[in-house]
Structures are given as C-alpha cells and as structure tokens.
Amino acid sequence: MKKTIVLGASDNPSRYSFRAAHMLKKHGHEVVPVGIRKGEVAGLPIHTDRPQEQDVDTVTLYVGPQNQPGWYDYILDLKPKRILFNPGTENPELERLAHQHGIRTEEACTLVLLSIGQY
C-alpha cells in the first residue's frame, strides 16, 4: 500500500487530518502523522521532529499555504511520488517547486479519493 505522510496531523477528531489518518489506515495504507503538537492519531504518535522516511508515496497536506514555506525543504527532501493539496492548502509556489523536483501534485481531497477508490 502507499506510505503517506499526513502533514498537519492532529489528535482533534473535528480536524480533517484526524479523519484522513484514520481512513488511510482503515484502507491499509502506512500512515506517518507529522504535526506541530504531540499527540496520537489512529493509534500512532504524531511526530513533531520531521522524521526522514524512505519510500514515501504521498504527502497529504493539511497545513495552510501561509504556513507551508517552513515545510518546503522537509517535503521535498522526502522525495514523495506526489503531494496532495487538500481543499484550502493549494499553493502554486510549492506546486512549482515540486514539479522542479519531479514530484507530481494533485489538488484533491484525500477523504474523497479514498471513498471512491481513486487514492
């Protein structure tokens, strides 16, 4: 299955990143929650130390564009196959950088893609 970094992970059940982590795990994907606050989501610890994972398929973003620049190097260094810009996270600058590094981008909702079998 697809190793996915959930960037902007939260232990708050009302957050979409919380729902995405649970749904990804339910669909059998390896989930690595990364956020700014420690906690737990989908039975996994939320990493606040920017873990250097290998073989990352997808980084799914739950961080607004105004807060993304501090994450650019981390995201690009992971060398994911794609970056999913969930609604509200669209960022032309990061999309351009990703394309320069050979990373596909998609403006889509992780929850919708999973629910229709297109993840």
Automatic annotation (TrEMBL):
InterPro entries: CoA-bd, NAD(P)-bd_dom_sf. It comes from the Bacteria. Residues 2-113 form the CoA-binding domain. SUPFAM superfamilies: NAD(P)-binding Rossmann-fold domains (SSF51735). This is CoA-binding protein. It comes from Hymenobacter negativus.
